[in-house]
Design a protein that fits this description.
The protein is α+β, with helices and mostly antiparallel strands and about 280 residues long. Helix content is about 25%, strand content about 20%. It has 7 helices and 13 strands.
Length: about 280
């Protein structure tokens, strides 16, 4: 209480991820605190690297109105200019031995009986509210901010399907003078060429100039990410800084969310840029 009177702010923030997470820049920080302190912390973390937040859909004790409030609040952070790269949304799991599994009766929890123990409903978040929360997420005006990171719930909750995927237009090569040479990518990815391994199982599928800036598309199975290098003074804020350039993610369509591995690839490029400057 005395510290608060002195204008100090606190956020309880245990960290998970270990040495591997620290090396790859993908630590998980579980935060608790008031909104002002939380937002101040976001600004500080954003100066270090891309910030991703995670939300559980259907966690016992939460409600449909609470979930809507949370999603609207997180969307407002981006609207107010806070450095939020994406919000990953997970359907609640209740594995054996977990806190909620031991209190199934208390919370009225029902789960999938075979396979992954996804939540089918609980006292505070019944089945129909889970389906409505899922629709709310996909119909949200800032849908581009949210990455749903689990299988379609229609697998265990009939009638609750993910919106059908369409084939959005990809960023394509455009005529015009090069503002940076295409070979700039070689500074970060030696031997950069179509078919060349990129990182973590991603493979380069195409290299091209888009609006005069060097761009590349990487693929991994049926997933794809298109990245571009720009100069900072050009005025477009990138996903993150890699050496003297801004790394920009090119969206494949208005409703497409960033791939969850985007910050990991960005971190790999940033490390490559740092190594290049030290050489």
């Amino acid at each position: 209480a005395h510290a608060i009177k002195q204008g100090l702010q606190f956020v309880d923030a245990p960290v998970s991820g270990g040495q591997v997470g620290a090396v790859n820049g993908v630590l998980t920080v579980m935060c608790g605190g008031d909104a002002a302190a939380f937002e101040a912390m976001l600004r500080q973390l954003g100066a270090i690297g891309p910030v991703h937040l995670s939300v559980m859909l259907g966690i016992p004790g939460d409600t449909l109105s609470g979930f809507r409030e949370t999603i609207d609040y997180l969307a407002s952070l981006r609207d107010r200019g806070l450095p939020l790269a994406a919000v990953r949304v997970f359907w609640t799991l209740v594995p054996p031995g977990s806190f909620f599994h031991e209190r199934r009766t208390q919370f009225g929890i029902r789960t999938v009986s075979r396979g992954m123990p996804y939540l089918l409903g609980c006292e505070s978040f019944p089945e129909e509210d889970l389906a409505e929360a899922f629709r709310f997420l996909f119909d949200h005006p800032r849908r581009d901010l949210f990455v749903y990171d689990d299988p379609s719930p229609g697998t265990w909750l009939p009638g609750c399907e993910s919106p059908g995927r369409h084939a959005p237009p990809r960023a394509q090569a455009q005529p015009g003078p090069a503002r940076l040479p295409l070979e700039t990518w070689n500074s970060l990815v030696p031997g950069c060429a179509e078919g060349h391994p990129f990182a973590r199982g991603w493979v380069i599928r195409s290299l091209f100039l888009h609006e005069g800036w060097p761009s590349l598309r990487v693929e991994k199975g049926d997933r794809a990410i298109t990245l571009q290098l720009r100069l900072p003074q050009e005025g477009r804020t990138g996903f993150c800084r890699v050496g003297p350039w801004e790394l920009v993610w090119l969206r494949d369509g208005p409703s497409v969310s960033p791939d969850p591995e985007l910050p990991v690839l960005a971190r790999a490029l940033a490390l490559a840029a740092a190594h290049r400057s030290d050489a």
